[in-house]
From TrEMBL:
Protein's name in the database: Purine-cytosine permease family protein
Keyword Protease: no
Statement: the UniProt record of this protein carries the keyword Transmembrane helix: yes
Gene3D superfamilies: Hydantoin permease
Ranges annotated as spanning the membrane: 62-83, 111-133, 153-171, 183-203, 228-247, 268-291, 311-332, 353-374, 380-401, 413-436, 442-462
């Protein structure tokens, strides 16, 4: 998930530079080509090396994976185009400022804290990814799929060193992060393609039917994993970036777009990264599953490790190791930087460098524990479930405020710091569907859309009540 091209300008704006608290002027707008490269590079990175193999551990079938990803990624693109980009070009405000105008400054502080912590955990999982590559030439024991704690001092030292380097570079500012990502992203995309082609050759694939038969009718999930069906794949891939599209985080990006049609450029990310790269990474794991080592784990009732470093090394040697290190780096670096910005909104007296170091420290500590990476499918689902409903507040106000006679940007209008309508709408929708997920063992991504819709509806109802009683 490296951020490139216009992200430098966008993020610097969020950090306190131009247009942080005002609409982007027409002289600064960008054409669709500016977004194409950004999304293609952003979504072919470290996370993809983990997510692809994890689908196999969930026992997906060929149809579920190939067709499910096609549909799920299409739904994600449509969400970006008709919700995020549509609202972004109308208001041209960052997510943070727009949410503050609706919710109030105190409530946005809570959002920033949650956002920053979740970003740190995501960055930590990518430090884990890079560590699996660095550990290959050291013959380090790789973390198992079911591991939650570090498996030795070598692992801890490697993670600490990688985390320190990433945090230091991120603290130098987004200019450094962005320039590095511009160079690395094409290398990573080529590496994914090469990994997929080499894996196909190692699997003896000579026809479409051979390729289809790699997954066949699917299998039982590995120990500790849940079974993924067609709808698991569709819904999860749709909401893998829920915080960015239905959660409206990418308002901060598309506020620079000349037209809402720039939202279609997200397809480059979805079908390069979340389709080609996921499948290529899954193929690497399919090769590994045929090895005596993997079969030994399975025969003992254990899940074979999902360690991107050894998988890429098996396919591409040293180039594969370098690609995994870079992929983890280009994900963790901007993610730590963004986490720092979220923390800076809470601790404005601290410099950007200091809050970035704080975020990097939290991310590095998280990276020591393999569970964040090994349970990435579940973590990403939780991340979207927590943050997406805040986007519903913006969407429902934008499209329905006039129809239901709701005052837009009510916190700004009434001069309040805490909009109860927003808080209660999020709390009830989150609490209700999280309890349903736990009590009835419902896949969390399945309840993200209902929670999002309920939050938007409750926001309108509570707004009607509170605005009427305060006038």
């Amino acid at each position: 998930m490296s951020q490139i091209n216009i992200e430098e300008e966008v993020i610097e704006g969020i950090a306190g530079g131009e247009f942080e608290r005002e609409p982007v002027p027409s002289s600064k707008l960008k054409g669709w080509k500016s977004f194409l490269g950004m999304y293609a590079g952003e979504h072919a990175a470290g996370t993809e090396f983990m997510i692809g193999p994890l689908f196999l551990t969930a026992g997906v079938s060929a149809f579920d994976l190939i067709i499910g990803l096609l549909l799920g990624n299409l739904l994600a693109v449509l969400s970006w185009r008709y919700l995020t980009a549509e609202i972004a070009v109308k208001n041209r405000l960052t997510l943070y400022f727009q949410l503050e105008k609706i919710s109030g400054k105190k409530l946005v502080t809570g959002y920033n804290l949650a956002n920053g912590i979740l970003f740190c955990f995501l960055a930590g999982s990518m430090i884990t990814v890079s560590a699996t590559a660095v550990g290959v030439p050291l013959n380090m024991e790789m973390p198992k799929l079911t591991d939650t704690m570090p498996n030795g001092m070598t692992w801890i030292v490697i993670v600490l060193l990688i985390g320190a380097v990433i945090s230091f570079i991120a603290a130098r500012g987004y200019d450094t992060v962005s320039k590095a990502a511009n160079w690395m992203s094409p290398i990573i995309v080529v590496a994914f393609m090469a990994c997929g082609l080499v894996a196909l050759n190692q699997l003896g694939v000579k026809s479409l039917s051979d390729f289809w038969n790699i997954w066949g009718e699917g299998s039982e999930p590995f120990p500790g994993q849940i079974k993924y069906t067609f709808w698991h794949v569709v819904i999860w891939s749709w909401f893998a970036n829920a915080a960015m599209h239905v959660g409206m985080s990418d308002l901060s990006v598309f506020r620079f777009a000349k037209k809402a049609n720039s939202g279609w450029t997200t397809a480059a990310g979805m079908y390069v990264g979340h389709y080609m790269a996921w499948i290529a990474a899954a193929l690497l794991y399919a090769v590994y599953l045929k090895t005596p080592e993997a079969q030994a784990f399975l025969s003992n009732g254990e899940a074979p490790p999902v360690a991107p470093g050894p998988l890429a090394n098996n396919a591409l040697g040293i180039f594969g190791i370098i690609a995994v290190v870079l992929a983890g780096w280009t994900t963790a670096n901007p993610t730590i930087y963004r986490a720092g910005l979220a923390f800076q909104a809470i601790l404005p007296k601290l410099s950007t460098a200091k809050v970035t170091i704080l975020a990097g420290t939290i991310a590095t500590i998280a990276g020591i524990f393999p569970a964040f990476a090994m349970k990435l499918l579940g973590f990403v689902a939780l991340y979207g479930f927590i943050l997406a409903p805040f986007g519903a507040i913006i969407v429902f106000e934008h499209f329905f405020a006039k129809k239901y006679n709701i005052i837009k940007n009510y916190a700004e209008f009434a001069g309040i710091a805490f909009n109860k309508a927003v808080f209660y709408a999020w709390l009830i929708s989150f609490g209700l569907f999280y309890v349903i997920s736990l009590k009835f063992d419902v896949f969390l991504s399945f309840v993200t859309l209902p929670a999002w819709l309920l939050c938007g509806i409750l926001f309108l109802l509570f707004s009607k009540y509170y605005q009427k009683s305060s006038l």
